[in-house]
Design brief:
Radius of gyration: 27 Å
Strand order of the largest sheet: 2-3-1-4-5-6
Oligomer: single chain
Strand content: 15-25%
Largest sheet: 6 strands, mixed
Mean pLDDT: 78
Shape: elongated
Bound molecules: guanosine-5'-diphosphate
Structural class: alpha/beta
Amino acid sequence: HNLVTQKRYEKPVDFTKIEIAKLPTVMIVGRPNVGKSALFNRLIRRREALVYNTPDDHVTRDIREGVAKLSDLRFRVLDSAGLEAEATSGSVLHRTAGMTANVLSRSQFAIFLTDARAGLHPLDLEVGKWLRKNAPQIKPIVVMNKCESLFDSSGSIATAANEMFRLGFGDPIAISAETGLGLPDLYQSLRPVLEDYMLQVLDEEKTQENSYSEDGCAAEVNESKLPLQLAIVGRPNVGKSTLLNTLLQEDRVLVGPEAGLTRDSIRTQFEFQGRTIYLVDTAGWLQRTKQEKGPSSLSIVQSRKNLLRAHIIALVLDAEEIANARRSMKHAEVVIARRAVEEGRGLVVIVNKMDLLRGKNKSSSYTKVMEAVPQEIQTVIPQITGIPVIFTSALEGRGRTALLHQVIDTYEKWCSRLPTARLNRWLLKVMSRHSWKDHSAQPKIKYFTQVKARPPTFVAFLNGKTKLSDTDIRFLTKSLKEDFDLGGIPIRIMQRFIT
Ligand code: GDP
Ligand code: GDP
């Protein structure tokens, strides 16, 4: 056993190479004003993020998530306000307390932040009690903040540390979030525990991989088992934040009248039927669309870089708007749908707020929307038949399962790989069905192969000098989709001459 441990430490984990979704999660907890946001900002190194110092300022009350960089260490860090909670029931603070418990249950580690200048505060003891009750699985690291001036006067830190020791979570670490002093000490105490955690995760993965390769289709299985990256996009007010909450099944993103609540949590993940689904920069997009008005509000997602980070784009439309409009999709929505497909992403269209079309005198609107949306999508994106449309009511929490099944189905199709032998048997049959009337000289496909997945991309190798026409390519694409159940996703076919 000793040998194993030794061997492990010979080769420390390289956190910089680990996928974000797999990194350990560290939550920063503490009473208001100890500097949680300041520490969060320092760890994620996004200086533009604001720090507000009034505890009842709504703007700091949601949970923020980011990737922390501490030397070569990487972890996901969550900043939450609101352990202070219970007293102010009904307010945002109260709601945040529930969220904190929920998120804490998904964190593997916690930094319990205190203020060394203020000394041990009664609320610190409350937080400690709260932690023991709500997250007994986590052994927090106590960190004393605002130590910058205490480092000079010998003894001050020791005095503060003595007090904080009474919290019962071991020796505290002295830092200054504002100046960065003491962060190496934080690194020293985090690194071994995070590394142990990471080694365990990597070990488990290896065991899983081995069991995949035993059934001889390792490549196929692994590819679609990679975490699915989902982006939820749409114009303001269609219900993206509400839908997000439904998906996460927790109040991770607050929706409500308070201004500015959905701020810069970067990434969020959740599990559905044993699969990790990873939401791509959704909060950033939500925030931008909330600030921008009118048709330009999708500009952010139209940038190629942002789009390419997602595998599946879920475009949210508003059922009530559609019922009252001549067209189902506004210009910005058409643009984003086309863009998603052009970039080879899987597209799922969500028609939300269906609950508003229920009841008396509304059934005709209901039917109209159900019929109009798929038709219009077919018109604006004629090259792909069967782009999935899911009808939801995020407000009532309806449609979650259907939506997630669809997202996964689309993703699996998007990841599929067809063996060359099978494709060529198929090619023989399908080419005999095809009429070549556009051509004076008929192109000869020598063989056909899939060169990559995500999205499925094929190459037709040609003998002779005649290229496949657009009609031929369309025919091949259509047949591939029908015969291999690849409908609703972009497929690419390229051609090469064998020289
Ligand atoms: P939170 O409520 O725990 O998120 O606390 P904030 O991050 O909003 O910080 C509360 C106040 O403490 C702000 O005025 C910060 O500028 C200040 N603060 C944060 N970190 C430090 C620090 O390391 N040293 C000093 N002197 N002040 C700090
Ligand atoms: P976002 O701007 O796209 O993030 O939209 P929000 O999630 O903030 O929702 C905008 C408004 O629509 C809020 O008042 C929501 O309560 C409401 N809303 C969201 N989903 C539904 C739904 O399925 N049905 C109804 N009736 N209202 C909804």
